[in-house]
């Protein structure tokens, strides 16, 4: 599936790229990758060992930092080594030649108007001159093209460095964008992109980061910084959980009374969404229901669920009341216009009416509504699943693809969740817990949010421990959906990818800066494992050192 944002019509473009014959060795991510030489970058022995283990080359790909190399690839140059990037490129075909490094005044040329954003961005980042579409070829050019590629992974790209020029092509603008991210990392700090051909594509179409802005107010600027970071790392989703018991953090026109004092304006959200789109990142909104609605209930206390003794149930609306459905649907419809991406998270988790021993006895009004809707055998679980399906219908009308947390798929319900709902699997501790295979065997598609590895919970409550990049890098794969055990490989295609998540249960435990620092290496480890299913070529120490050099 494609996760691309701007939905521009595809068309074939002839790129006119000439690929040189000085091709010698293909280096995949499953073997050691040698860092391109860039003259005194402090790479040292770890890089030399990696290069030696791969058997690709004992030389360098660059003529040094001082001057631009002469664009005449010959065997007087050592065989190039594959670039070191995060995530690592999947394949590099080595060649003899000087490589390429940006020089002021050199051009970025596009072969398709769809690539104007990508061209302008990489030109500004590398100090080049964006000139738009040009047919002539000049030394030092960086040329971008969409090449059709029917049947190809839409996020794939090919980058050719030859004769002092670079060409990046892909079947979509997203693939070309990822190629520019590779190039940006390659030449970071004055380095050289090595001669040869990179062929690269992600293993998983969902590579996400989810942020709980409901419990903790994050500034628009901080979120925008994360979008830039995510884009450079080839993530393609940003989840925003903006409604919960502690706060409702985006301005509303339909129900301004539910909005917290500290919140994002719609103008700020539009800027975040636009920035994300320019980086081929879908913003995935979440208004969780029927639980986690405390901020809405604070303004509408009549909607709060109460048990048979009249005791209020934290965060839960009374789903037997039509007014509860109306206010949530009002908000879903309103924000569909603010978030134009194709994905939506309905939540559905931790509805507290279901955690008691006998929901029917504890909440007789819910039991009565269930019987009225589903007949004499109707249960509170049925009514709750029906609520989720009704909210799915509201969002589906806006053309969105929906997911819900796995504990919103209730084992005890005779009413089945809508078939097009994807599973956001986060925990094995839910009410009526089921193994991930139960969802996969039923044909569900799944996004992996495994709370054992991918949950960064502020304050570390409920036995959560801040995840480390090393543990993700060395022990987690997308097949590890629950705990530390992999699901059978036959379900790999149904696991669309994964998402690292920041939850702000104890919001004052860390500042924005501390959160950014704490998630830095976990994000890099996560995307490496989502981009390439093979065992990483680098040790953790080498990977961490590379992240330090790339910034």
Largest sheet, in brief, is: 8 strands, mixed
- SS elements, strand count: 21
Oligomer: single chain
Trace the largest sheet across and list its strands: 1-2-8-6-7-5-3-4
Describe the global form.
elongated
Mean pLDDT over the residues: 88
Calculate Rg over CA atoms.
25 Å
Q: Roughly what percent helix? A: 25-40%
User: Which stretches are poorly predicted, pLDDT < 50 over at least 5 residues?
Assistant: 1-70
Tally of DSSP helical segments? 14
**Portion in beta strands:** 15-25%
* Cα separation of the termini: 31 Å
Which structural class do you get from the secondary structure elements? alpha/beta
Summary of the model, kept short:
With 551 residues, this protein is an alpha/beta fold. It is built from 14 helices and 21 strands. Helix content is 29%, strand content 19%.
Describe the secondary-structure layout.
Blueprint: E1 23-28, H1 44-54, E2 91-95, E3 107-110, H2 116-126, E4 129-132, E5 142-146, E6 157-162, E7 165-170, H3 173-186, E8 196-200, E9 206-212, H4 220-232, E10 237-243, H5 266-278, E11 282-289, H6 294-299, E12 304-306, E13 312-317, H7 322-336, E14 343-347, H8 359-362, H9 364-374, H10 380-396, E15 401-405, E16 422-425, H11 436-441, E17 446-448, E18 455-457, H12 469-475, E19 480-482, E20 485-486, E21 495-503, H13 512-531, H14 540-550
Parallel strand pairs: 3-4, 3-5, 5-7, 9-10, 9-21, 10-11, 11-14, 14-15, 15-16, 16-17, 17-21, 18-21
Antiparallel strand pairs: 1-2, 2-8, 6-7, 6-8, 12-13, 19-20
Helix pairs in contact: 2-3, 4-5, 7-10, 12-13
């Amino acid at each position: 599936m494609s996760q691309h944002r701007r939905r521009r019509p595809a068309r074939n473009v002839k790129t006119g790229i000439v690929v040189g014959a000085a091709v010698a060795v293909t280096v995949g991510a499953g073997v050691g990758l040698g860092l391109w030489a860039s003259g005194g970058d402090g790479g040292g022995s770890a890089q030399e060992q990696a290069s030696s283990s791969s058997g690709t080359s004992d030389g360098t790909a660059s003529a040094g930092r001082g001057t631009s190399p002469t664009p005449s690839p010959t065997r007087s140059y050592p065989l190039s080594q594959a670039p070191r990037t995060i995530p690592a490129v999947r394949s590099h075909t080595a060649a003899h030649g000087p490589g390429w490094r940006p020089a002021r005044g050199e051009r970025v040329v596009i072969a398709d108007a769809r690539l104007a954003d990508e061209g302008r961005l990489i030109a500004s980042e590398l100090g080049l001159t964006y000139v738009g579409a040009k047919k002539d070829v000049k030394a030092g050019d960086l040329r971008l093209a969409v090449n059709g590629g029917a049947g190809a992974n839409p996020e794939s790209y090919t980058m050719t460095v030859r004769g002092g020029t670079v060409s990046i092509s892909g079947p979509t603008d997203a693939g070309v964008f990822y190629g520019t991210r590779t190039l940006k990392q390659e030449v970071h700090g004055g380095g050289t992109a090595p001669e040869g051909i990179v062929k690269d594509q992600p293993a998983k179409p969902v590579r996400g980061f989810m942020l709980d802005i409901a419990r903790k107010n994050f500034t628009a600027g901080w979120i925008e910084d994360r979008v830039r970071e995510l884009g450079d790392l080839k993530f393609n989703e940003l989840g925003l959980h903006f409604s919960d018991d502690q706060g409702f953090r985006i301005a509303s026109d339909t129900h301004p009374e539910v909005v917290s004092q500290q919140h994002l304006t719609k103008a700020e959200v539009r800027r975040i969404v636009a920035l994300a789109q320019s980086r081929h990142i879908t913003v995935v909104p979440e208004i969780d229901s029927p639980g986690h609605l405390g901020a809405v209930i604070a303004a509408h206390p009549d909607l709060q669920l109460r048990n048979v003794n009249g005791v209020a149930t934290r965060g839960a609306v009374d789903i037997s009341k039509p007014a509860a459905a109306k206010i949530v649907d009002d908000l879903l419809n309103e924000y569909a216009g603010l978030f134009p991406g194709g994905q939506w998270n309905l939540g559905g988790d931790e509805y507290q009416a279901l955690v008691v021993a006998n929901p029917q006895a504890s909440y007789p009004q819910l039991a009565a509504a269930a019987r009225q809707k589903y007949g004499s055998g109707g249960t509170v679980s049925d009514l709750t699943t029906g609520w989720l399906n009704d909210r799915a219908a509201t969002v589906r009308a806006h053309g969105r693809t929906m997911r819900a947390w796995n504990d919103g798929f209730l084992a005890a319900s005779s009413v089945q969740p809508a078939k097009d709902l994807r599973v956001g699997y986060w925990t094995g501790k839910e009410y009526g817990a089921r193994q991930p295979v139960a969802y996969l065997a039923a044909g569900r598609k799944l996004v992996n949010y495994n709370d054992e590895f991918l949950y960064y919970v502020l304050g570390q409550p409920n036995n959560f421990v801040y995840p480390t990049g090393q543990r993700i890098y060395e022990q987690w794969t997308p097949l590890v959906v629950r705990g530390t055990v992999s699901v059978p490989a036959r379900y790999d295609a149904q696991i669309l990818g994964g998402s690292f998540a920041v939850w702000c249960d104890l919001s004052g435990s860390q500042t924005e800066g501390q959160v950014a620092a704490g998630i830095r290496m976990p994000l890099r480890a996560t995307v490496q494992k989502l981009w390439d299913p093979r065992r990483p070529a680098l040790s953790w120490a080498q990977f961490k050192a590379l992240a330090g050099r790339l910034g």
